[in-house]
Amino acid sequence: ILFVVDNSGSMSDDQEELATNFPLFLAQPQFNDGSTDLHLGVTTTDCDGGEEGRLIGDPLVVTSATPNMAAEFASNARVGTSGSGDEKGLLAMELALSPPNVPGFNDAFYRPEAALAVVIVSDEPDGSPDTVQHYVDFLRGIKGGGLAEGLVDLAAVMDGVYGTGYIEAVAAFGGMSLDITTSWGASLGTLADGLADLPQIFRLGDVPVAGVAVTVDG
Predict the structure, then answer these.
(1) Which residues pair with 37 in a beta bridge?
(2) What is the pTM assigned to this prediction?
(3) Contacts with 218 (C-beta within 8 Å, 6 or more apart), sequence order
């Protein structure tokens, strides 16, 4: 799960909302019963001389094996408020998952065989330079285009009225969203529930022949 967190001047309270309530996200059974191997990465919406898609934090990637997982993610999620006021969350998502960051700086996060979810947290519209469809196509394509349904998802904590760009992108994936203008942290468990089924869905590459059985992990 890649978190793209707005680091502009108005985001201190929302970063704290994410950090403080993240245990509710991890409380989803599939995230804490050992059945899902999580990799959690954080970057910012600053693509104007800021992170430009590079992950931040120490450790750079929080995994299911990380001691004090919630606390380590919370530290990474407090990305600060000195970033560009021209938030480009969709562009940051693309940069985080493509060269020179993958392969490259973000290699420890991205696994080609794993399901992928992106969660954008921003209180402003998206200012990315390409069309929303460009970023939707990019995210679908990273897991095989038409076969990617069920293996990628996009969710957001955003302004449901003024979050132009994010609203359309999330809708294209049928993703979940939380209203950033409310006290949204208590609903992080609901957002997690919408993402938890991703690793359990496997799309076949063709119509199966009658009598063929497909199993996963036995």
Answers:
(1) none
(2) 0.90
(3) none
